[in-house]
Specification:
Number of helices: 14
Radius of gyration: 24 Å
Helix content: 25-40%
Number of strands: 14
Number of domains: 2
CATH architecture of the largest domain: Alpha-Beta Barrel
Largest sheet: 7 strands, parallel
Distance between the termini: 41 Å
Order of helices and strands: HHHHEHHHEHEHHEHHEEHEHEEEEEEE
Strand content: 15-25%
Strand order of the largest sheet: 5-4-3-2-1-7-6
Structural class: alpha/beta
CATH superfamily of the largest domain: Glycosidases
CATH class of the largest domain: Alpha Beta
Amino acid sequence: MHKIVILLIICKPIFSVKERREGDGILNQRFIPDWSDLDRREIPDWYDKAKFGIFIHWGVFSVPSVFSEWFWQEWQGEKRPDVVQFMKENYSPRFTYADFAPQFTAEFFDPDEWARIFKASGAKYVVLTSKHHEGFTLWPSKSSFGWNALDTGPRRNLLGDLAVAVKKMELRFGVYHSMYEWFNPLYIQDRNNDFKTQRFVAEKTMPELLELVNDYKPEVIWSDGDWEADYTYWNSTNFLSWLYNDSPVKETVVVNDRWGRGIPCKHGDFYTCSDRYNPGKLLEHKWENCMTIDKDSWGYRRTASLKDYLTTHELIKELAETVSCGGNLLMNIGPTADGRIIPIFEERLIEMGEWLQVNGEAIYESHPWKSQEDSSTSGVWYTQRDGNVYGIVLFWPKQELLYLHDPLPSNKTVITLLGYPDSLSWKSNDKGLQIVFPSMSEAPGKFAWVIKMTSLTKNKMKARRKV
């Protein structure tokens, strides 16, 4: 019975191509469950304007908090020697991964404080791991059979509480969701059947996705764990057709590209392609760079040292490169099992926000310019907005002189440094543009600086890509 209900819900929005093309105006806006049709959907404006979001990896893996969030798979799936040895030295032979769950207490979790930090970071959206590959859900999923945050561990709806707090701060809320689970018997059975059966999809994956959308109305659905099976097994196109046509977030939701083997970098509202994806060039399709402050793990690691964390300058560099090339940056933190955002993560987020307070004009609602990185001076990345061109300078110029090749000034050009009260002196010749910076002690902020150039010659970019 449960399986039949799910299939009816998912199949509801299906229309033939003929019905969609020849029907009335409302039908003409509907999407059939075919990639060629789903791909014609225009991405909601808010996502391209936002540019910067926060990713949160939180779950039972936050309890052992060593190696990575793949701890369970590395321990009992891959049997990685150092992980196996760690468990032998610190836990009894009868200890199971499920025994970590009661220690996932989240007793210090304050969703309002988390949301305040995210707001202060300058991020415009937040994406929480609703369920990682371990299968533990951070909301009381009806399909989780007790393996969720309300039935064990925190004994509260972590996802629901954070969703309320984030939206109260006027940030967009999204969810990461793993389509598969390492050790779920239903999934293993389907895999052993060469994915010709779909019990796991019908009884687990789809009910969870429907619950998340209907109950929490996320505006980002960040799918993952799809790579072992084709999209037809996952019923992905049927789900997306329902999401775009009939769901409560159909007007504003965006999805990534991880919906089945071979689908990443080909289909979806935005492409993620691979973790930490940064092509360094302008792409024709909207994309996102999901990356971690901790270089080696998405989840919290109590064994991490200072050198394992990206500096604020490195994070701003990543943001500048990403936005210049048309992407969004989704920057990840891993909270502790007791619900804290550790000070080094908080510091990085706050410093990002302080930089964006001064320089956000070059980031939010911007578009790529005709050049991305300056063709002669590396470390200067361009964006444009409202007819102005911005150069994000990732170093302090030697002798306060910045040389650029790509901008062509006119006799009306004015160049300013964001956060600095006076315009900057400049001159140009056949070698390029020379800009005089103030002394470093007078310049605003640190880490990177942004010049704003008005009335450039030929400052319109080439034909815009569709986003």
